[in-house]
């Protein structure tokens, strides 16, 4: 289970076995069933999750009770309410498992402790945060500039495994279209590729 985390850490920094074992003591293993809420609006003491197995989503619900998916996370990805985690405020979004999941969670206190004790861990978390900012900016630009069909094609290109792993209504929410429109687009894409 911890091999995935170690591989991700070592893609950016080098670690001894002893360092990795110590780092691992700052994480908690979580196993959750499909449709489990890991974070909900108003929650205090938000943790950050590293996905070992399964798929999660983060989302918010608008004043009309419509769900808007902000992020998906599959194995080797991180997910949380970043505003609540870093600012130590109440959660403003939800994080929920789409499938049964195995996760490693870390608190902000433990993350900062590791960053303080190991400069290379501070470097790792900074690199991952920067990559997250880039991805968020890219998602906003995609939503603003592409047609709905182009957004769907972009989604398929960026996340080819998700079309088989998660319900299509989640994809519709993520790219900002109705389920019906997504079904029509999916049929058109399938017809064009056959």
UniProtKB/TrEMBL annotation:
Record-linked InterPro entries: cNMP-bd_dom, cNMP-bd_dom_sf, RmlC-like_jellyroll
Listed Pfam families: cNMP_binding (PF00027)
Gene3D superfamilies associated with the record: Jelly Rolls (2.60.120.10)
CDD domains named among the record's database cross-references: CAP_ED
Cyclic nucleotide-binding domain: residues covered: 30-116
Protein name as it appears in the record: Crp/Fnr family transcriptional regulator
Organism classification: Bacteria, Pseudomonadati, Bacteroidota, Flavobacteriia, Flavobacteriales
């Amino acid at each position: 289970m911890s091999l995935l985390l170690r591989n991700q850490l070592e893609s950016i920094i080098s670690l001894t076995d002893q360092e990795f074992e110590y780092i691992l003591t700052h994480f908690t293993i979580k196993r959750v069933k499909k449709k489990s809420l890991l974070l909900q609006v108003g929650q205090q003491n938000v943790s950050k999750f590293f996905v070992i197995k399964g798929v999660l989503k983060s989302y918010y619900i608008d004043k009309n009770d419509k769900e808007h998916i902000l992020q998906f996370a599959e194995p080797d990805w991180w997910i949380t309410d970043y505003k609540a985690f870093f600012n130590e405020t109440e959660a403003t979004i939800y994080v929920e498992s789409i499938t049964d999941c195995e996760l490693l969670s870390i608190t902000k206190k433990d993350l900062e402790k590791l960053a303080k004790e190991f400069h290379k861990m501070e470097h790792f978390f900074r690199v991952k945060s920067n990559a997250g900012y880039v991805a968020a900016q890219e998602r906003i630009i995609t939503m603003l500039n592409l047609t709905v069909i182009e957004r769907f094609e972009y989604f398929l290109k960026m996340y080819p495994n998700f079309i088989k792993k998660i319900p299509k209504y989640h994809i519709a929410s993520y790219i900002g279209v109705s389920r019906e429109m997504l079904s029509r687009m999916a049929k058109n894409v399938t017809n064009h590729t056959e």
